[in-house]
Amino acid sequence: MWRVIDAERTGVAELLAGLTDEQWERPSLCAGWRVREVAAHLGIGPRARLGWVLVETVRAGGGFNRMVDRTARREAARRSPEQLTAELREASGSRHLAPGQKLGYAMLDILVHGQDIAVPLGLDRAMPLEAARGSAEIAWRIGFPFHARRRLRGVRLAATDVDWTAGDGPEVAGPIAALLLLLTGRDGAALARLDGPGVAVLDGARSHPSGGAGSR
């Protein structure tokens, strides 16, 4: 997994290095964040230590999501695009995990956030299939922060490019990368790339969201 994480960090850093100032300010797929905040968030994890996380969580009022949002916004405001890009590039090769983070979650994080940046900019960023499949399984299995099994109850997810399925009901089929975006709450971007009778079911459910959209 570390090889995938290293390659993805390097690849996203290269993508960031080629962006214009205007593209850095564009909204990402991650709710409420621009490209700039996503880049800042990706650079924080490899540097975060337990004491820092505890202090920042207290400062944020005790909520993990508030802490993640607050620190990403602060670091994005403090650093230039060049600094944010350099921090992510330097993280390649690091074997440090943020406190409480498992290796699979770190892989999922960089895969999805790379798409959070690329998709709204109209840039094609391929996901390694096996890594995407493993990340999809993690996103389906865990509860917080995606709540995928609850949000996607009543449909069957089926990848068309790797052997992966989950759930029961009308089928939602497509590339594993699109399914991973769906699992992590990027519904609008995901459903545009998916087919099957279950898509209509999910489109109808979007008017009554159950949480997790664009989860970080």
Automatic annotation (TrEMBL):
Record keywords, A-Z: Isomerase, Pyruvate
Record's signal peptide: none
Ranges where the Mycothiol-dependent maleylpyruvate isomerase metal-binding domain occurs: 6-95
GO-annotated molecular function: isomerase activity; metal ion binding
Pfam families: MDMPI_N (PF11716)
NCBIfam families: maleylpyruvate isomerase family mycothiol-dependent enzyme
Protein name (Swiss-Prot/TrEMBL): Maleylpyruvate isomerase family mycothiol-dependent enzyme
Organism: Actinomadura chibensis
